[in-house]
Amino acid sequence: MKELLDLTALQLGAAIKKGEVSIEEATRAALEAVEANQKLNSFITRTGEQALEQAKALQVNAKTAASPLYGVPMAIKDNICTKGVKTTCASKILGDFAPPYDATVTERLATAGAVSLGKLNMDEFAMGSTTETSFYGPTRNPWDTERVPGGSSGGAAAAVASRSCWYAIGSDTGGSIRQPASYCGVTGVKGTYGAVSRYGLIAYASSLDQIGPLARDAADCAAVLDTICGQDPRDGTSLAFQGSLLDGLTGDVRGLKLGIPADCFGDGLDAEVRRAVLSVAGALKARGAELVEFSFPVMRYVVPTYYILAAAEASSNLSRFDGVKYGWRAEDFEDLTDLYCKTRTQGFGAEVRRRILLGTFVLSSGYYDAYYKKALQVKGLVKEAFDEAFCKCDLMLTPVAPTTAPRLGESLSDPLQMYLSDIYTVSVNLAGLPGLSMPCGFDAAGMPVGAQLIGPALAEPRVLNAAYAFQLDTSWHKRSPAGKEAHG
Amino acid sequence: MNWEVVIGLETHVELATKTKIFCSCTTAFGGAPNTHCCPICTGMPGTLPVVNRMVVEFAARAGLALNCEITRKNRFDRKNYFYPDLPKAYQVSQLYLPIARNGRVPIQTEQGGEKVIRIHELHMEEDAGKLVHDPWADQTRCDYNRCGVPLIEIVTEPDFRTAEEVVAYLEQLRSTLEYLGVSDCKMQEGSLRCDVNLSVRPVGSETLGTRTEMKNLNSFKAIARAIAYESRRQIELLEEGKRVVQETRRWDENKDATFSMRSKENAQDYRYFPEPDIPPLELSEAYLEQLRARQPEMAQARRARYQRDYGLPASDAGILTGQKALVDFFEAVIALGAPPREAANWMLGELMRRLKEEGQEPKSMALTPGTLAKLIGMVSAGRINRNTAVKVFRAIFPDDGDPEEYVQAHGLEQVQDAGLVERTVEEVLSNQTAAVADFRAGNVKALGFLVGQVMRQLKGKADPQAVNRAVSERLKQPEN
Fold first, then answer.
1. Alpha carbon of A317: minimum distance to chain B alpha carbons (Å)
2. CA neighbor of B118 nearest in space, from B8, B29, B227, B207
3. Which domains does chain B have, with CATH numbers?
4. What is the pLDDT of residues B330-383, one digit of tens each?
């Protein structure tokens, strides 16, 4: 059974197609793994029975199915709508919310024959970098359960890393796929803004949010993206996408100009992380890539800019959770205003309230120009800086986070420090670019380190191919927490 | 002191698109509560708005017709506030880059002159739902059917000085939007709603006084009365040495007065910011050119054409073009071959009379243009006389009956047999010897009586002129 769980999603898909493994077998193996890994708390809602029914129904067409991921069990972050299945955003306020509709991504996965094991834990409303702000308790890192898995897609990263499912669907507003992927030693991709439809993704910051995959390797991520990306008539910001990402994986990076922005490797970066990330440059160079170093001073402004814009949009997006139409409502209230105040004060956790207040402040009359408008202008500058950088190189290599996964409880005590650790990921969301996080080594404590590859808009094929090339030559992505235990 | 009243208007107009602004729910008025809505227009988590292209087209066409500059790259913004009729807790509207700006609307003043009202901007937005208070259960209920119905808001500069100018502008606006077909402009159903901003200042002053905004004005009459009331209230305050407070006031139709709703100090901070879910709208010059080419002939141009080409008096042309339903009816009747003057006479006479009797609006009547054209045709063919035609018209008006069938069923066809008319004249004259004698004694009125008697004998089915001729000629003959 363990061997089955060690297959990649594409290997499992191929085995299902050949009839070597039944979808039910795979599903049962995954459900057992989920059960065995309960202490990680990576799931909020498990849909085991539904998954088994689905598995049986899907088996009929297993041999003729078009998708290379047909029948492969996966799980979905709990801020992506699943018809009739609770979608809580890890919040008390949506504790009983079962949407009467599917997200476009959920629909596309179902059409491709994915088996859904349930809904994954996350930071409340995707606000956090540790999955500790979840109303349903923190998720733990499978490599060291005293450490956080990262966030906000911590449940997704932990589930993939612990071999509880073959891939997971997360969302990334400021690094929420890439950073937990890095902390948990899996591969995660946030596509170009608009690459994947946001219809059915419960919004945190609409202009920055993107749905994307977390999986064992770049090839699995490419296959998942092939399934979920592309224009959607229900999302006016979605983009058309042509060709298969999976078919574009050649491993050929000859002549590729890999940019090393000096400002991403300076102060504040852990030395072990620095060394591991730069090893990617060495590996790609050995395959014929060319290295280009340059300064990238705009990094200095990205964290405040991100937190102003994201909080502003969040304050508006989360206003609808007012206890009037659905979701949790405070019990004793005197009038309408009291109903709003009590419901929102008691229904949201501290981090969500903090960001709503921050966002409300920066949009307020008298402060709009100084904060929100200025942040929008800086966002424009960040885009320009990336445009300029991509005149010098084809891809950029940076760390994902300044350190490996911190211990539980360390980050929440100092939110500002937690925000600052998002420095390498938020710039990519501000510029709307594709970014990928992949394992590139381990620190002395045995915790995985992730490297980030950033490409120009719609350069997903290039980003994935470079990661694929790196993974052809390395085996960091093949290590599993269980394996570590076995060797240790 | 002499005071000048200064007024600006904000008019909300529901657009007559079939579906809502951001989803495919129907915009039909009056469905059972919460039957015309979906996860998108009720702002359920995760749903996204996608702009209805017809809304943009209608708004752009309205902007063009009001002589506005169209903002080639315009954008939506969010207006944030909490209220149970607004399920997203923000309204998607346009603040920073509205679709149209700097328009001009000429109106006729009472003195017969022309005045131009400047349009500050025209923007698109979504309507909110409706709260229904149930006093019996002491509960407020939400009906989200209206959520996401497309609106345009048209904001004027403070260019009005009298209530008459305001009403003239609104009539002009309504006519324009109806001609464009972008709204049905029914005030009763709330598809045209008006907020009035009003301040007063000493005559000759250049600076504006403190203004109040009046809401809840749902008829032209209410608007005129509210303006009269509010200007008097403000003038009285100032003459007593008090000051006007900047606030929003509600017009109470029953009490005939305005009441304070909220002052500026309590005004909401709407925290507008660009709507991230909708990319900016880019309207190409080619697109706008195509819209311009499709603009219909407006009321003023049509009025002039009716006077020039059909010889209609100015007042008749004015009434016909005043309402889109009438002008459409008129055009349809003449397209079916009826002479324009004849069609106009019927419409301004009998048709208007019947509408008034039935208490109906032209846009809701059953009568179709084909029916009137047919009736006019029967008169000009001499098959029925005008008096009979009026009778037929009155009878078939409510249900759009067939004039042909009605005439057949009631045997109203005109008598074409000249011999029968002559025999009847002969018979009447020989019986009415007293009247004949009167006539011959010089009493001309007796002729009318005799003609009437002949018509009566023929059950009104003869051509009255022919009968008149026959009686006159017979009387000219010497007595036997």
1. 8
2. B8
3. 3-286 (no CATH), 297-409 (no CATH), 418-476 (1.10.10.410)
4. 999 999 999 999 999 999 999 999 999 988 888 889 999 999 999 999 998 888
**Alpha carbons B415 and B382: distance in angstroms, whole number:** 10
Q: Cβ distance A486 to A479 under 8 Å?
A: no
* pTM for the model: 0.89
Which of the 8 DSSP states describes residue B320?
Answer: H
CB–CB contact A233 B78 (8 Å) = no
Q: In the sheet where B114-126 sits, what is the strand order?
A: B69-70, B100-108, B114-126, B150-156, B3-14, B192-202, B212-217, B247-252, B257-263
**CATH fold of the domain at A2-258+391-483:** Amidase signature (AS) enzymes (3.90.1300)
**Domain residue spans of chain A:** 2-258+391-483
Annotated catalytic residue A152: yes
Residue owning tokens 């994915």: A114
Distance (Å, rounded) from C-alpha A481 to C-alpha A485? 6
Structure-token pair, residue B192 = 């045209």
Beta strands in A181-289 (DSSP E): 187-190, 210-215, 257-261
**Is A176 a catalytic site residue?**
yes
Q: By the CB < 8 Å criterion, does A300 face chain B?
A: no
Residue A370 neighbours by CB under 8 Å, 6+ apart: none
Most B CBs within 10 Å, among A324, A340, A356, A372, to test the B interface: A324
Angle between helix A460-473 and helix A271-286 axes, rounded to 10 deg: 100
Asked if the Cβ–Cβ distance from B273 to A234 is below 8 Å, we say no
Q: DSSP for A303-343, please give it.
A: HHHHHHHHHHHHHHHGGG-SSSSSS---S--SSHHHHHHHH
- CB–CB of B331/B323 below 8 Å? no
Q: What is the pLDDT of residues B216-257, one digit of tens each?
A: 788 889 999 999 999 999 999 999 999 999 999 999 888 888
How far is residue B202's CA from residue A99's CA, in Å, rounded to a whole number? 60
> What are the tokens at B466?
């022919």
Q: Do B46 and A99 touch (CB under 8 A)?
A: yes
Buried-exposed string B294-306: b where 16+ CB fall within 10 A, e elsewhere = eeeeebeebbeeb
Give the residue on A whose Cα is nearest the Cα of B51: A236
Tell me if residue A197 is catalytic: no
Quick one: B74 exposed, middle or buried, by C-beta within 10 A (0-12, 13-18, 19+)? buried
| Active-site residue (options: A67, A152, A164, A315) | A152
